[in-house]
Fold this sequence. Notes:
It is a single chain. Helix 1 packs parallel to helix 9 (276-295). This protein folds into 2 domains: 3-39 and 85-150 and 252-295, FAD/NAD(P)-binding domain (3-Layer(bba) Sandwich), CATH 3.50.50; 153-248, Polyamine Oxidase, Chain A, domain 2 (Alpha-Beta Complex). The protein is built from 9 helices and 18 strands. By secondary structure, the chain is an alpha+beta fold. This is Renalase. Residues 84-291 form the Amine oxidase domain. InterPro entries: Amino_oxidase, FAD/NAD-bd_sf.
Amino acid sequence: MTTIVIGAGLAGLSLAIALQDAGRSVRVLDKGRGPGGRCSTRRSPVGLFDHGAPLLHDLPQDLIERYSQHLSVSRDGHLPVPSINALPKAMAEGLDVRLDCRVTGLFETSGHWRVETEDGTHEASTVALCLPAPQVAQLLPPDVAEHFDAPPMSPQWSLMYCAPAMADGPTRRMLTAGHSATRQNDLERRDASGDERWVVHADLDWSAANVDLDRNAAQDALVNALRSEIELADPTHVAIHRWLYARTIQPMGAPYFWSATGGLGAAGDWCIGPNAGDAIASGRALAERILGAKEG
Length: 296
């Protein structure tokens, strides 16, 4: 029977690839419109904004070689090209990935798992939850959830700002408030045409303190922070996004979570660290556990 992977971020895709490469049947479900999780790119009338993860750190060498045409070395990490979601899109090729598929319930019946979604039911012998830890806790059956202590994760606000070019300046800027600003036009193998497109990733402490701030108020605060330090014209486009679970604060300290009842596990960067490479390592480790369970 099929293994169901819930979540098409780097952990879930890495897990699914490992299972499929081993000859297993696997299906990936994700509520989003595209794979990638926080490796997300926002399309807009003025161009693309990498408003999720700004850079990928600690990628394993074999993955770098396998997807070299989609990666560019950048500072101390790798930048997928031509947008941050190019890597998960490439990883999803050849997999059975069901998008716009929101999971609503998870139930064990007669030795297998029933995954309920808004569009129907999926049957599986094994289920892997590759989601932010708080969302894993929400989906786990109560008798399993009582043994799962979700590691804390920080939210983060992201601002997307476009305006006519004013003057040359640095591609990246750390703002006084701790926010980081990146001019998208200047990033490796990006579309450099048109007006300047900026993404501001808000400081994590500021984001946590203002997680429930009205969206317009959060947008105004980040626009003011950006324009107070960088000379920019009035915007031709501006948008805001709140990531509720953007960064692992304290990892679980184990490569994956595995239910004592068997057939149910969870993986993500929250298991071992905050970086993209940690998510991939966690997904692969859970795949090994699933393969071992089936062989045993």
